[in-house]
Design brief:
Elements lengths: L7 E3 L4 E4 L10 E4 L2 H9 L6 H22 L3 H12 L6 H10 L7 H34 L4 E5 L14 H10 L3 E7 L6 H13 L3 E4 L4 H6 L5 E4 L3 E3 L4 E4 L2 H11 L3 E4 L5 E2 L16 H4 E2 L2 E2 L12 E4 L6 E4 L2 E4 L11
Parallel strand pairs: 4-5, 4-7, 5-6, 7-10, 8-11, 10-15
Antiparallel strand pairs: 1-2, 2-3, 8-9, 9-14, 12-13, 15-16
Helix pairs in contact: 1-3, 2-3, 2-4, 2-5, 3-4, 5-6
This protein binds 5-S-methyl-1-O-phosphono-5-thio-D-ribulose.
Length: 341
C-alpha cells in the first residue's frame, strides 16, 4: 500500500491543500495564507468533503488570526473573516463545527487555535480508521466473510477527510482483509468526484473498481451486481435523515428495492443534533455552468437553465446502518420487499 494521501497539512506558515480540482491529471499542492483565498478554495472545491472542510475551517481560523496581526484588523473584521470561512459552504455541518470548535481559543491567540485545530486533524484520522474497522466488521457479519461487491458515490476517501477516509475507509479495511471483490464508483456528475477522486484513490490502493455513470447505479444494484452501497455524509439530522452528494438518495431507494444494505459511514461530528430532520438541512445550490458546460464547452443550448443542487437528503428509513468511530447504529427499522431484474 502506498503512503496515505494527506489532503490538508499545516506547514508552519500556511495551510497546504491538495488541489482536488486538478486530480487525477496533476497532483498539485496550494499554500493558502489569506482568508479570501481559503474561502475561494472551499467554494471551488480545491478542498472538499465534510470532515476535510471541518479541519480546513479550523486551520482557517489560524490564518485569520495571523492575517489580522499582519494587517492590523480590529475585532469586528476578524470576527467577520472567521464567519466568512464558516459560511463558505452551507451543507456540510463539519465546516461550521470545525470553526466553532476552535473559536473559543481565539482570545488565547493563534498558537492555541493551532493546537486545537491540529488535534481535530489527528482525531479525524484516528476516527476514520475506527469507522473503517466497525463498518467492515458489520458488513462481514451481515453479508458473510467473503469478498464483497460494493458501490459508492462521490468521494468519501482520504481526500474528503484529514486522511484515510470514511466510506472508502471501510473499503480500505475490507481490502486489507482481502474482502473486496470490486467497487462500483459512480462518476458523480456534475463535478466527477467519483471518477476523478475515488477512482484515483482506489487505483493507488490497488482495489479493483469500475467507474460507472450515475445513471447506471440503480440498474447495477437491481441486476444483483452489488452486495452493499456505502457512502459518506455531509450532515446527519437528529432523526437520521442524511445529506450527501446529489444522487445518493436514488442509490438508497435502489438498495431498499433490492433488499441490500445502504450504509452511511461518518464521524459523530457529522451528526447535527440542532437539525431535527432532513427538511431543515440547507442544500447548496451551485453555479449553472457546472451542469450546462463540460470541460469548458457548452453541453446545452444557449439560454438553457440548470437545476444544480449539490446535495440530497436520504430519509432515515432508507439508511440501513450508520458506521461511526464508536460502532455501527442500525438506523432503518424495516425494509421494503426486494425486487430484482
Ligand atoms: C467523507 S466525505 C462525505 C461527503 O462530504 C461526500 O460524500 C460529499 O458529498 C462531498 O461533496 P463535495 O461537494 O465534493 O464536498
Amino acid at each position: 500500500m502506498t503512503a496515505d494521501i494527506a489532503p490538508i497539512a499545516w506547514t508552519g506558515d500556511a495551510l497546504r491543500l491538495v488541489d482536488q480540482t486538478l486530480l487525477p491529471a496533476r497532483l498539485v499542492h496550494r499554500d493558502v495564507t489569506e482568508v479570501d483565498d481559503l474561502v475561494d478554495a472551499i467554494r471551488r472545491l480545491v478542498v472538499r468533503g465534510a470532515p476535510a472542510l471541518g479541519v480546513a475551517g479550523a486551520l482557517g481560523v489560524v490564518l485569520a488570526l495571523r492575517q489580522a496581526e499582519r494587517e492590523n484588523w480590529d475585532a469586528a473584521t476578524l470576527d467577520s473573516a472567521i464567519s466568512r470561512i464558516r459560511e463558505a459552504r452551507p451543507t456540510a455541518v463539519n465546516l461550521a463545527s470545525g470553526v466553532d470548535r476552535v473559536r473559543p481559543f481565539v482570545k488565547k491567540g493563534a498558537e492555541a487555535v493551532l493546537t486545537e485545530a491540529l488535534a481535530l486533524l489527528d482525531e479525524d484520522i484516528e476516527g476514520n480508521r475506527a469507522i473503517g474497522r466497525h463498518g467492515a466488521d458489520w458488513l462481514a457479519a451481515r453479508l458473510g466473510d467473503r469478498p464483497l461487491r460494493l458501490l459508492t458515490h462521490c468521494n468519501a476517501g482520504a481526500l474528503a477527510t484529514a486522511g484515510w477516509g470514511t466510506a472508502l475507509g471501510v473499503v480500505r479495511e475490507l481490502h486489507m482483509r482481502n474482502r473486496v471483490e470490486v467497487v462500483y464508483a459512480d462518476e458523480t456528475r456534475p463535478l466527477l468526484q467519483g471518477s476523478r477522486l475515488t477512482a484515483w484513490e482506489l487505483e493507488q490502493l490497488g482495489v479493483a473498481y469500475y467507474v460507472q455513470p450515475d445513471g447506471a447505479a440503480a440498474s447495477t444494484i437491481l441486476r444483483g451486481h452489488v452486495d452493499a452501497a456505502i457512502v459518506g455524509a455531509d450532515r446527519i439530522a437528529a432523526n437520521g435523515d442524511t445529506a450527501n452528494k446529489i444522487g445518493t438518495v436514488g442509490i438508497a431507494l435502489a438498495c431498499a428495492a433490492a433488499g441490500i444494505p445502504f450504509v452511511v459511514a461518518a464521524p459523530w461530528s457529522t451528526i447535527d443534533p440542532a437539525t431535527a430532520d432532513g427538511t431543515q438541512i440547507p442544500i447548496e445550490q451551485r453555479d449553472s455552468a457546472e451542469v450546462l458546460s463540460y470541460a469548458g464547452d457548452p453541453v446545452a443550448p444557449p439560454g438553457a437553465r440548470a437545476h444544480n443542487p449539490a446535495f440530497d437528503v436520504t430519509p432515515a428509513r432508507l439508511v440501513t446502518a450508520l458506521a461511526t468511530e464508536t460502532g455501527v447504529l442500525e438506523v432503518a427499522a424495516g425494509r421494503t420487499p426486494a425486487l430484482s431484474l
